[in-house]
Specification:
single chain, 346 residues, mainly alpha
Length: 346
């Protein structure tokens, strides 16, 4: 550790001698990665990759053959949303696979951003984390460009993530400009990690919603898990992120002391809004189940009283809605711009 860092770490109160916090303070004040100057070309290549996957694989071949009428019968708005959920879900799996080892190695494993990713490897921990960060940023950029309908809250979340992610990387070009470059990058990684983990199931939930639109008991469970997973993820994210932020309070400059809580407040509001949307969708499925049971019992009683053999009649409120308005199933008028696509809720 350099003399400057030794002095810096030694100047903090005893509360910083927690092993993880002390390790973060000992991170050298250097660039995040040697790939940062090339982040523009990496970001562009990822966006181009998304285009080729969409244009030559998902749209013409994979989704029509995998989902058949479920996909081809969707209108253009919901078809694009359905495709985007596949790209977003796959992207989060890739980001998690890339970043999980270097993230824990840097945060609490004794490594730093310029440690080799593997013994003898030229790639560093910071290199892999930069690529994973740019992949997540490109995913949100693609969604803003490709989707037709996105809620204002979703736009605010995506734009904020893109700008914050790029800013955290650019600050690392010259660490003399900011002594919190490494810590700011770690905080952004924490945000990204919780975003990947807690927001993955909602993508799966909407895909299942398209595949099984009439299985209301199943969808009720799916939306319940999506609601509480995002709620629990928001709580854990707030506790852990604010713990690190507050514990390192003396190291932040005044602009970060003001901006970081405000940005976290926006992200928290977006995530809570997403939980509310899934709660509403869960309650809607419960309503369909109740209506189905009531109509089924009424029909059975009527049939039995007429002397005809009793039988069960399945009431499908979705089919009833479709008879009245064929577009009502695909576009919610109760929550315009939010349901049924969960990524719009953020």
């Amino acid at each position: 550790m350099s003399q400057h860092n030794a002095t810096l770490a030694g100047s903090y109160p005893p509360r910083y001698h927690h092993r993880v916090l002390h390790h973060l303070l000992d991170l050298p004040l250097t660039t995040v990665s040697e790939l940062v100057p090339y982040s523009g070309i990496i970001f562009s290549c990822i966006l181009i990759l998304f285009f080729f996957v969409k244009h030559y694989l998902l749209e013409p071949y994979l989704l029509p053959r995998l989902y058949r009428e479920t996909y081809t019968n969707l209108d253009i708005v919901n078809r694009r949303g359905f495709l985007n959920h596949h790209i977003a879900g796959a992207s989060k799996i890739i980001c998690l696979a890339l970043a999980i080892y270097p993230f824990f190695a840097v945060v609490c494993g004794g490594k730093h951003l310029h440690s080799p990713y593997a013994p003898g490897s030229k790639a560093t921990m910071g290199d892999v984390l930069v690529v994973a960060s740019l992949w997540l940023i490109a995913m949100y950029t693609f969604e803003l460009i490709y989707r037709i309908k996105i809620s204002p809250i979703g736009i605010a979340h995506h734009v904020g993530t893109i700008l914050i992610g790029h800013t955290a990387l650019v600050l690392g070009l010259d660490p003399r400009l900011n002594r919190v470059v490494d810590i700011e990058f770690i905080i952004c990684l924490l945000w990204g990690a919780f975003d990947i983990v807690s927001e993955f199931w909602p993508h799966v939930a909407i895909v299942l919603y398209r595949i099984y639109p009439n299985d209301h008991a199943f969808l009720r469970k799916v939306f319940k898990v999506a609601c509480f997973s995002t709620l629990f993820g928001t709580f854990c994210e707030t506790v852990i992120t604010m713990f690190f932020f507050g514990s390192l309070w003396d190291r932040w400059t005044i602009d970060f002391k003001i901006a970081t809580p405000l940005l976290h407040l926006i992200f928290t509001f977006a995530q809570l809004h997403g939980s509310r949307v899934f709660w509403t969708m869960m309650k809607r499925q419960e309503k369909y189940i109740r209506e189905g049971k009531e109509n089924c019992e009424r029909d059975v009683e009527n049939v039995g009283s007429s002397g005809v053999e009793r039988h069960s009649v399945r009431f499908d409120p979705v089919e009833k809605i479709r008879d009245r308005d064929p577009h009502r199933v695909n576009e919610s008028k109760d929550l315009p711009g939010l349901v049924p696509d969960c990524s719009e809720s953020r």
